[in-house]
Write a structure and sequence with these properties.
This protein has 407 residues and is α/β, with parallel strands linked by helices. It has two domains: 186 residues, Rossmann fold (3-Layer(aba) Sandwich), CATH 3.40.50; 206 residues, N-(1-d-carboxylethyl)-l-norvaline Dehydrogenase, domain 2. Helices cover 36% and strands 17% of the residues. The radius of gyration is 20 Å and the shape is globular.
Length: 407
C-alpha cells in the first residue's frame, strides 16, 4: 500500500473552464488549500460553485470550493505547493511550465489535465536534469475530469459530463500509484495508471473530434458570411453523418499510426488506444443511450449534452470563432503532432492533411504544405521534432520509459 504524498496545497494554473471546475471540486475538500494562477486574478471570487443539474453528478448537488489565493504572480502561486495542475489547453502548456518551473520545489508533482499536444516531451525539456535531481514527478491525464463550461467567470461553472474513471500517465513510473491515489482524492473520481504517455498522444479525442466536426459543418464557409444563430447545430447532440465520417477518417489514420508502431515494436503497450466509437462508449458507459453508430454515440451521450461550437456575434448574425482552442490547440498541438509521428513512421495521412489544410486557411498559417509539415513553423507546434526527437526510437524512449532491449 502506497502512502499518499503529504501535500495539502494545490496550485491550479490558468483560468479556463477546467480551472473553474478544479477549484470548485478540490476547494470543497477540507483536506486541500487551493491557489489559482491566472492572468485575470481580480475577476475571481474566493469561492467557486460547480452547478451539477442535468449532469451525472446531479445527485451530489451543487459543489462550492474555497480558494486560498488567486494571483498572476507565479512565485506567489507556487509558494508552499507540491502539486501543480495545468488546466489550460495544450497551446498554453509550455508557457505555463516556463512560468512555474523556477518556483517548483523539490518532491513536487507537475501535471496537465489534458496531456495531448506534447506534454510528454515538453515538460522534460523544461525541467531537464531537475526531474531526477529534485525528485519532480510529471503526470498527465488521458482526458479532462469533466466536460464543463464557465458560467460566470471567476465565480461558477456548469458541470456537463463528469468522467467515471480517470487514466494517468506518470514519470517516473514508480510514482504512478502514488500520483493516482492523490488524484483520486482531488477529484473524487477513481484514477488508474496508464502504461505510457504515448497512449495519451495517440488516443482519439479532441484532436480529431473538433476538426472533423468543424469541417463537417463549415467546409463551404468563406470565412466571412454570418450565420443565423438559430441555424447553428449543437456540437454533439446534432451530429450529422458527414461529420461522423470525417471523424472516422481521422480516427482510421490514428489506428494506422498505432499499427505501424506495433509492427516495428510489438513490446510497446498501446492497447488502451481504442477506436473513437469504442473509446467514447467505454468512457461514458450508460450516459450513451444509443451505441449503434459513431453518429448516435455522439448524439445520445449525456456527457456531451448542450456543448456548442465556438461562435462570435457580428453584424448580421454569428461567425465561427477561429481564435479558439478548436483551431489553435487542435491543429498545431493536435493534427500536427499526429502528422509528425506519422512522418517518422512513413505512414500516409491524406485525411489529416486535408482537414488541417482547411483549418489553417482561417489561421493565416501554413503548418502543412503539400501534405507535409512546414519545418519553419515547427516552433509554433507541439510536435516532437520541435524538441529534437528525430526518429520513432527517440519518441518511444521519451514517452514509454522503455529500456532499449524492449524497443
Amino acid at each position: 500500500m502506497y502512502a499518499e504524498p503529504k501535500v495539502h496545497q494545490v496550485t491550479i494554473c490558468t483560468g479556463g473552464n477546467a480551472s473553474h471546475f478544479s477549484a470548485a471540486i478540490i476547494g470543497a475538500n477540507p483536506m486541500f488549500k487551493v491557489n489559482v494562477l491566472t492572468r485575470r486574478p481580480k475577476e475571481w471570487k474566493n469561492q467557486i460553485t460547480a452547478y451539477t443539474k442535468g449532469s451525472a453528478w446531479e445527485s451530489k448537488g451543487d459543489i462550492t470550493g474555497n480558494i486560498q489565493l488567486v494571483t498572476d504572480d507565479a512565485k506567489e502561486a507556487c509558494k508552499g505547493s507540491k502539486f501543480y495542475i495545468i488546466a489550460g489547453p495544450a497551446h498554453t502548456h509550455e508557457i505555463v511550465l516556463k512560468q512555474i518551473a523556477p518556483y517548483v520545489e523539490k518532491d513536487s508533482f507537475v501535471g496537465a489535465l489534458y496531456g495531448q499536444g506534447g506534454f510528454a516531451w515538453m515538460a522534460p525539456a523544461i525541467f531537464k536534469n531537475r526531474l531526477k535531481k529534485d525528485n519532480i514527478t510529471i503526470w498527465a491525464l488521458l482526458n479532462l475530469p469533466a466536460i464543463c463550461k464557465t458560467r460566470v467567470y471567476g465565480e461558477s461553472v456548469n458541470v456537463i459530463g463528469p468522467k467515471k474513471l480517470l487514466q494517468c500517465a506518470v514519470f517516473p513510473p514508480e510514482k504512478a500509484d502514488m500520483t493516482c491515489c492523490y488524484l483520486d482524492d482531488l477529484y473524487g473520481i477513481p484514477t488508474v495508471p496508464l502504461a505510457n504517455f504515448l497512449i495519451i498522444t495517440l488516443t482519439p479525442s479532441n484532436q480529431i473530434i473538433h476538426p472533423g466536426r468543424v469541417y463537417g459543418v463549415f467546409k463551404d464557409w468563406d470565412g466571412k458570411t454570418p450565420f443565423n444563430p438559430e441555424q447553428i447545430p449543437l456540437l454533439y447532440e446534432d451530429m450529422d453523418e458527414f461529420s461522423a465520417e470525417q471523424m472516422q477518417a481521422l480516427d482510421d489514420e490514428i489506428q494506422l499510426i498505432k499499427k505501424a508502431i506495433l509492427k516495428k515494436y510489438p513490446g510497446v503497450d498501446l492497447s488502451p488506444i481504442l477506436p473513437l466509437k469504442e473509446r467514447v462508449i467505454r468512457q461514458y458507459g450508460d450516459q450513451v443511450k444509443d451505441k449503434s453508430t459513431l453518429k448516435t454515440v455522439f448524439c445520445t451521450n449525456q456527457g456531451y449534452r448542450t456543448a456548442r461550437f465556438p461562435m462570435k456575434q457580428v453584424d448580421g448574425g454569428v461567425v465561427l470563432d477561429v481564435n479558439t482552442r478548436f483551431f489553435w490547440e487542435d491543429i498545431p498541438y493536435g493534427l500536427c503532432v499526429l502528422k509528425d509521428i506519422a512522418q517518422l513512421l512513413g505512414v500516409a495521412t491524406p485525411n489529416i492533411d486535408r482537414i488541417a489544410e482547411w483549418h489553417q486557411k482561417f489561421m493565416n498559417k501554413q503548418f502543412f504544405i503539400k501534405g507535409k509539415l512546414n519545418k519553419d513553423l515547427l516552433k509554433e507546434t507541439g510536435c516532437p521534432s520541435k524538441y529534437g526527437i528525430k526518429n520513432i526510437e527517440q519518441l518511444l524512449k521519451v514517452t514509454c520509459n522503455l529500456p532499449k532491449a524492449n524497443l
